[in-house]
Every structure is written in C-alpha cells, then in structure tokens.
Amino acid sequence: MSALLIIIPLLAGFLFIPFKEKAKYILPLVVITTLIILLLLSPDQTNAMGGWKAPFGIVLVLDSASYYSLLVVNIVFLLISLMPQIVEKGYSVVLLILLASTNGLVLTGDIFNSFVFLEITAVAAYIIAFSRKNPYGAFKYLILGGISGAFYLLGAIYAYIGTGSLNFADISVNIKEGFLPIVALLIFIGIGVESKIFPLAGWVPDVYDSGSPLTPVILGTGVTFTIMYLFGRIFITVFHGYFLDVVFIFGLLTIVLGELAALRQNKLIKALAFSSIAQAGLVLSTISLGGYEAIKFGYFHLLNDISAKLVLFIIAATIAHNFTENKIAGVSFSIASFSLIGFPLFAGFRSKLLILQLAFSKDNYLLPAVVLFATVIEAAYILKWNIKLWHSTNTGEEKQKISWNVNLILLIVALLIIFIGIFPDLYLKMAQNIADGLTNYRAYVTNVLGGM
Question: In 10 A of CB 133, how many CB atoms?
Fold first, then answer.
C-alpha cells in the first residue's frame, strides 16, 4: 500500500498535463490523500515490488525513519498547495511529479532506484528553478546536478561490484572494505549538490533568487529534508557511520563560508539562501559527530530550520514594501528569523543548545566554536534585515502583496516555532523516531532481507 504514495501523485501529474490550469485544484486533494494513506500505514513494513523479494527485487521500506520523514515532506507539500498564490502558473503538475519522486526517494530500499528518484527530483527542481525565466541559475543548477548525478550512479555501480547487489540492506551487510571508501566518496559527491555542502552549493543563491517564492520554498524545505533523510539512510544505516569524519570537516566549512557570504548580501533572498547553506552544514556536522543523540539533535535542528525557512522565503520573495504595511508578515518574519539566530523561547534556541551540550560532552570544542561564531554573524545580518524591513519606507522593487490565506499559514507556522521553543517534545519525538530508524541497522536488515 505504501506504493500508492508514489503512484497517486505520479498518475495525477501525468493525467493533468493537458489541464495545467486545473492541476492547482487537484494538488491539495492529492497531498491530503497521500497523508491519509500514510496515517493508515504502520511504520514497520517492507513491500516487494512485482513479488520479487529482496535482495533480488526493488523494495519499499517503511520504518520509523522513512515514515516520519514522509510525514514532514508531505505536510510541507500540503502547506504549499494551500497557498496557490505562490505556485507559478502551470507548476502544480511539476509539484505532483516532485511529490511522487520525493516520496519514492524516502521509501526506496534500493541504491539504483534511489538514483532514478533522485534524477526525477532533480529534473522537477530544474523546471521549478527556471520559473520567472531564470536561465542562468537553472543552467548552473543543471550542470552541477548532472555532474553530481553521474557520481551517484558511479557510486551505485561500485556498490554493485563490491556486493553483487543494489539493495541497501544487502550492501550494508556485504560490502567489501576495499570498495567502501570509493563508494562513500562517490555517493557523498553525488548528494552534495542537493544537500548544499561546500563546495557544491554554488547554485543555491542564483536559483533561490528566481523571483518566484515557490523555488526557494520547495527546494529549501521539502527537497532539502528529503535529501538529508537520504544522506542519513546511506551514511548511517548502510555505511554504519563510515566517512562521517570527512563530512564533519566539510560541514564546518559550509557553516563558516555560508554565514560570511550571507553577511555580505544586499538582497534579502540571497542572504537567506546562503543562510540555508550554512544551516545545512550545521545539520551535517551535528549528524557527523556520531552516535544516536547527534543524529537526533541534527534532525531536530533540521525540523526547526525548515519551519523557519518556510516563513522567511515566502516573505522575502513576495513582500511589497515594509512590514508596516503587513504586520502579520512582519511578526512572522521576526519570529522565524529570531529562531534562526537561536534566541531563547524560539525553536532554534532549543536545537542549538542541545547541539552545543552534546559537542561539549564529547570533548569536541571545534563545533561549538564554529556555531557560536556563526550565531554572531547570523545575529548581525538578521537584525539588520529586521530593522530595515520594519523601518524603511521602500525595500526595492515592487512585488506582489501577500494574500490573507498565505498570511494565516505564515502566522500559524511562526506560532508553532514559538510553541516548539517552549515545548520541544513534538519535534524532538519526530527526530527521535527518525534517529531510531536510521541507527537500528539490524532491524532494518531483518525487515528487508527477512533475517538473511
């Protein structure tokens, strides 16, 4: 039944290609349907496609990690579908295809199948990146994405050579030590573009600054979370933490360079794009500390970040003048941006505090130093933009105004950020379930291979 999470949006997307204008009405219905199906499923099942059992056939794996990741991604798509004003004309069909591919990417238990879904996700992302006629950003994204996809495919090929299998669980058990370094390196490069790790994140500012709120919102939230799940599934469940020490260094560099670049920006959307790069570096660095708590706190911070970015990207791409004309958007922006910095009583404070405590407990002083440095930089440019947007009479070019339904959703998400800052258990529980699924290697292998 989990296959319906892929089949329904994919089928709807192809059926509505001739009726692009009507697709915006079907998008929320499809997302609601996938959420209902997901809620009816239990996070402990493996479905063999075509009756071919693992490791010989393709399997869809629904454990606690994939279940809660799907829940997050589909809720993001639902929120976007309820704001048709930010969806460019005719792009609802692309979003349906993207929903199918992200769901497939989370569900698949096969490395080649993950490559296929990764490429479908990338193609949909390229199309969205070209919205509002942004050829330079989309072309840069296309070139980098194509190169990274080739590396990912090479990694899948080497994994097959080293194990005789494409199944994640089988690779986890049987990969030969001589193949593991090259496979890990190729896969890391392969998902480095989408995970926004230095030096493969150069596409982000130009693509996010497309003039369309849809581009940064969907790529910076739903797609980002999907890729971070894939990273955890491969490097934690399949590789058992191998190569994470290398990822840690790249993560730290990504934090520092991303924040410094954000500080230099004179355009809000580009500042937030570089901030998104830096936050991805923080998530990867935290996960790379190793251990259950590190994974849990890394995904907790990721949940906080995509909540804030959902609000910030919509406002940055659509606000007309300043916040005196739209106080709801202004309050929502301030709440989300203060969470990004890590002010007390906001969600970001909770996750950053936990990350610092964990690093100190592991006698790791490099990550806290980088996080504190980055927080000072964040505070500088975030406070600058808050002051500018609350007190400036004109912030630049004329843009569309934010409608009442978008304002309402922004306010709800902003209030959720405060709620998580005071009562973090909701997000912490979700992060815990994701960490449980990613770290329980034996249960994953048993569920997929049947105890082989």
Answer: 9
Closest CA to 204 of 280, 263, 301: 280
What tens digit of pLDDT does each residue of 424-447 get?
999 999 999 999 999 988 888 888
Find, among 307, 280, 278, the residue nearest to 430 by Cα. Answer: 307
**Rounded Cα–Cα distance for residues 198 and 280 (Å):** 10
CA angle 92, 95, 99 (to 5 degrees): 140
Mean pLDDT computed over 385-403: 67
Q: Are 106 and 226 in contact (CB under 8 A)?
A: yes
CA distance 261 to 171: 39
pLDDT band of residue 395 (cuts 50, 70, 90) is very low
CA distance 155 to 184: 7
15-32 mean pLDDT = 79
Overall pTM > 0.70: yes
Indicate the helix (H) or strand (E) that contains 32: helix 20-40
